[in-house]
Design goal:
The complex is a heterodimer of chains A (86) and B (197). By secondary structure, chain A is mostly helical. Chain A is built from five helices and no strands. In chain B, helix 2 packs across helix 3 (65-83), helix 7 runs antiparallel to helix 8 (161-168) and helix 8 packs across helix 9. Chain B is elongated and about 70 Å long. The termini of chain B are far apart. Classes of the chains: A mainly alpha (86), B mainly alpha (197). Bound molecules: zinc ion (ZN).
């Protein structure tokens, strides 16, 4: 029974990989059930997923701010490009 | 005959310089959004202007030069994305262990100790903390180019997984593995550089 459980259960490592995977590609039904089971039972992985969510939000926010940022070429950068155009 | 060529060359040269002055900053900003690297953005603008100069006869006068320049720039960006996906990723992978203090796996891949979230508990506070944001921003910039491109595709351009892998010329399993490693790297970087008081 214990052996069977082990096959059915994901390790924390596998679960963290699968939760990243599911954001980009579809999981198989088995993967998705295993992931849900692990998430229900494991407190450590719960902590990790809270951190992951925070990082997701922070990355999103930082990158959104970059969209609004206007950048200017410095005089030196401009000069370098002019040199290349000669 | 010679003078005509010389004249048109100098005209196109003047025109390109005019465009650089007019659109250079916008192109630079755009390239930076797309790559998160100032050096890369500068190189891409330069390459684009040089290409535009060399193929100046392909520009149809009367059309919007900005559109033409952006077409060239976007092609350069695509080339850059593709070129950044070399076999390098394997070496990079081996560099990234699970070095996060709080999240160490045992030999079975189970977390060795159960603990509270490292950052997540103070979520609202951290998202508004400019120091935290600066550190994370630098961590994003410090990612290997191909991993950074995966992160940018996902969070910045809000692309679907299939689109990102197409853009980067990688398989879907490569894609999510890179995304996972990039995330681990970001966490490691935060762990090493962010010390909450
Ligand atoms: Zn777990």
């Amino acid at each position: 029974m214990k052996g069977l459980m082990k096959i059915a259960m994901l390790s924390c490592k596998q679960s963290s990989i699968l939760s990243e995977k599911q954001e980009l590609v579809n999981l198989s039904i088995v993967e998705s059930i295993k992931l849900k089971m692990h998430a229900k039972m494991c407190t450590a992985s719960k902590s990790l997923s809270i951190d992951n969510k925070l990082i997701d939000q922070a990355v999103l926010k930082i990158l959104e701010q970059r969209k609004e940022q206007n950048m200017s070429l410095t005089a030196a950068q401009r000069e370098k490009i002019l040199q290349a155009l000669r | 005959m010679y003078s005509v060529t010389a004249k048109s060359t100098s005209n196109s040269h003047q025109e390109i310089i005019k465009w650089l002055n007019k659109y250079g900053d916008d192109m630079y900003s755009w390239a930076y959004y797309k790559t998160s690297s100032k050096e890369t953005a500068e190189d891409l603008v330069q390459d684009s202007m040089v290409s535009a100069y060399k193929s100046f006869e392909k520009y149809k006068s009367g059309t919007n030069p900005k559109t033409w320049l952006y077409t060239i720039l976007n092609n350069k960006i695509i080339d850059y994305y593709r070129a950044s996906n070399t076999s390098k990723s394997i070496n990079e992978t081996s560099l990234i262990g699970n070095s996060l203090e709080g999240y160490k796996y045992d030999s079975n891949g189970i977390f060795a100790k159960v603990q509270d979230p490292l950052w997540g508990n103070t979520e609202e506070h951290l998202l508004d903390n400019s120091e935290f944001n600066d550190i994370l921003s630098n961590c994003i910039n410090a990612l290997p180019p191909n991993w950074r491109n995966v992160i940018l595709g996902k969070y910045f351009h809000h692309k679907k997984g299939s689109e990102i892998s197409k853009d980067l010329g990688i398989t879907s399993s490569n894609l999510w593995q890179m995304a996972h490693r990039a995330k681990l790297q970001l966490k490691t970087c935060l762990d090493q550089n962010w010390k909450d008081n």
